[in-house]
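Suppose a colleague, Dr. K., hands you the sequence of a protein chain of 195 amino acids and asks what its three-dimensional shape might be. Before reaching for any lab equipment, you can write down a predicted structure in token form. Begin with the sequence itself:
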Amino acid sequence: MALKYAILVALSGGPKSGYDVAKQFDQDMGFFWRAQHSQIYRELGKLKKNGLVDAEEVQQSGKPNRVVFTINEKGRESLYKWSREPSRSAKFKDTFLVQLYALDSIDMDAFRQNLQRRLELCQDLLLEYETKHRALEHSDTLADQGKQLALDAGIRWSREWIDWCTVALQKLAPQAAADLTNIVPMKNVGKTSDK
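The predicted structure, expressed as tokens, is then:
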């Protein structure tokens, strides 16, 4: 999915500055779409140039002026047309999972620490998604139903990762690592012996 459509989706909820769009990415859409702030500002410029959004400079006293972007009719038509295209499944890349293929060659203590951090991150995300979901429970607007469904996916994803991390931590207990005899400490990788 092109970043432009994610930004048009953000703007479909109302006018926003580039900062507001970036904040929405960080807070609301972050679990399924990431973008750096510089990418968002660059893309907003392209959307304006291509006539998909309108921009208005808003004066602020004591602060730099803000540029507020609004999706226009051409932008809404583009968003509608895009929604009719078949969606492609996302490519899943995770270096953490790649490391599983080399457990006999990596620093197991560091891996377990990373695994624990992943578990804690997923627990934090689950709490965040559940809190946001509860805030939308009594809304029946189509927009909020869409947000609830997206949050449902995030909740399920987080729970699965929590379950998986818990099982992995149990399997990779410290005594299990002691049984591995062919671990090369990371500090020695690439060094040659003087013997």
